[in-house]
Amino acid sequence: MGAAQKGCRSCKEKGDRNAVDEVDYNKVCCTLKRYTIIKSQFNIKEGIIMEKSIKIARELGHAIQQEEFYLNLNAAKDKADADETLQALIALFNTKRVAINNEACKSDRDEETLKSLNEEMRTVYSQIMSNENMIAYNSAKQVFDSAIQRITAIVTQSAEGEDPDTTDFDESCTHDCSTCGGCH
Question: Which one of 16, 52, 70, 80 is CB 3.0 to 4.6 Å from 133, fit for a cystine?
Answer without folding.
Answer: 80
